[in-house]
Design a protein that fits this description.
Blueprint (H helix, E strand, L loop, with lengths): L1 E7 L3 E5 L4 E5 L2 E3 L19 E4 L2 E5 L1 H6 L3 E2 L4 H17 L8 E8 L1 H15 L2 E7 L5 E15 L2 H8 L10 H4 L1 E7 L4 E7 L2 E2 L5 E3 L3 H16 L9 H6 L1 E4 L2 E4 L1 H22 L8 E5 L3 H8 L19 H13 L7
Helix pairs in contact: 2-3, 4-10, 6-8, 8-9
């Protein structure tokens, strides 16, 4: 029996077995025949991204982005759950599952969508799934992914569990057990705000808003459209924004200033939302900024948030905070199950 964790996000899907992590873009595409499928350089080899699930051949992540003629990517919650969550989740878990062996899974949902979609997501994932994994050389491996149990938690609690628990699921940092902690989890589609008051969830202090990183990326994409006449898909901006430059039809566009402006505006919006939501929680001991967008926005947010903002760890990928915490929580609630 193994415990796994998956963070199936609008921007990226993340998964771990407690030892290894994988991250890929949350894109699903039709599987087109590829004339030359091997990587040109051995160092570029990665986890398989070609699957057959439910009789449908699909590419996942960056392979879908680069090779599929028809690509699926959405910021709509209902469509994401109905069409993409299962496919992305199974693709993320497949490297960590032995054929037919039962596994237990912890995953999460944004605060405001938790009650509405929790049961639907559990039903989608908690069953036996027949998956064919297609390697780059064309070799096909049939695999049964048996997800015996699923625990869905409010998304930002993943980061709290990651700070609170160690690799054995035991309390590591007592501050997160005894104090009143606010969490700002900046994802691609949503920003989640929640409070853990001595580990108790605060309904009053918890909310999801549409102030995710997609707001900043939309602003960048719209300005690029004005300058270049080309509408760039949001998921094709991820690496370009990190590099600070994008090339469109042979012309380079500097994204550094555009990104800084978009991040600053989004941070002000998020800080205003946090300060308004938590106006009555003046006894907050500390605030955590986390999520894939947390690292980008933290420098803009820290001076605008009212309260003590804990510094973000610089030695880890902020996108993995929630999924790492999900796994630790799984070990905490199923301590006898983790093996292998």
């Amino acid at each position: 029996m193994r415990i796994l964790a998956a963070d199936i996000g609008f921007g990226y899907t993340k998964a771990t077995d407690g030892r290894q992590f994988q991250v890929f873009k949350s894109i699903v595409g039709e599987a087109n025949p590829i004339q030359f499928a091997e990587s040109l350089l051995p160092s570029q080899a990665s986890q398989p991204r070609h699957f057959s699930i439910g009789g449908e051949d699909i590419f996942i992540g960056e392979l879908a982005e680069t090779q599929s003629r028809g690509r699926g990517f959405t910021l709509d919650h209902a469509q994401f759950i109905a069409k993409y969550a299962k496919l992305l989740g199974l693709a993320a878990l497949s490297p960590y599952v032995e054929h037919g062996d039962p596994v237990r899974l912890v995953t999460g949902l944004p605060i405001s969508f938790f009650r509405k979609y929790k049961d639907a997501l559990t039903t989608l994932l908690q069953q036996r799934h027949t998956v064919t994994v297609v390697q780059a050389n064309g070799t096909r491996e049939d695999k049964t992914i048996y997800i015996e149990k699923v625990r869905v938690v409010p998304q930002p609690f993943g980061s709290l569990f990651n700070q609170m628990l160690d690799g054995q699921g035991k309390a590591l940092n007592q501050r997160f057990v005894t104090d009143k902690i606010g969490v700002i989890d900046i994802g691609f589609r949503t920003t989640d705000f929640t409070i853990s008051d001595k580990t108790r969830y605060s309904e009053r202090g918890s909310l999801s808003t549409d102030s995710g990183m997609s707001v900043a990326y939309n602003a960048i994409a719209n300005l690029l459209h004005e300058k270049s006449g080309t509408q760039v898909e949001l998921y094709r901006l991820y690496e370009a924004v990190t590099r600070g430059v994008i090339k469109i039809k042979g012309q380079k566009y500097d994204l550094t200033v555009l990104a800084q402006q978009a991040y600053s505006q989004l941070a002000t919006r998020i800080a205003t939302e946090a300060n308004r939501l938590w106006a009555d929680d003046w006894d907050m001991d500390a605030i955590i900024i986390t999520g894939g967008g947390g690292a980008a926005l933290a420098p803009f947010l820290q001076q605008q948030i009212e309260g003590e903002v804990l510094p973000m760890p610089t030695d880890q990928d902020a996108r993995l905070n929630n999924v790492a915490g999900y796994w630790k929580y799984g070990v905490h609630i199923w301590p006898a199950q983790q093996a292998g």
